[in-house]
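Blinded run. Sample ID left blank on purpose so nobody reads anything into the name before looking at the predicted structure. Input follows.
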Amino acid sequence: MAHQVAATTAQLVAASRAQADPSSEAQKKLSAAAKAVAAATSQLVEAVKQISELARVEREMPANRRYTMSLSAKADLEKQIEILRLEKQLQEARDELLAGRKAQYKAK
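Blinded prediction complete.
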């Protein structure tokens, strides 16, 4: 699929070059867009390769190892939730302190 995108883009650029002034602003923009498409296609191919490799590694991993990893991830998420809860409580306490100080300042 990526090769088809690259080939089609190349055909469009070649057809445009045959019919347009090669030094025109539109042609320069088309060439830049073609390079961007090629770069994005290359990145997509690389990302798919990495995902495929991760999927292969996960398939080959013993089931008990996957389960242990999911328990570890769950524990990490629970810790992050607890940290967020405590940070929220801390911010609420700071807000209360600030409100009290503002009230004292206005009372003076």
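Unblinding after everyone has recorded impressions. The chain has two domains: 1-60, 73-108.
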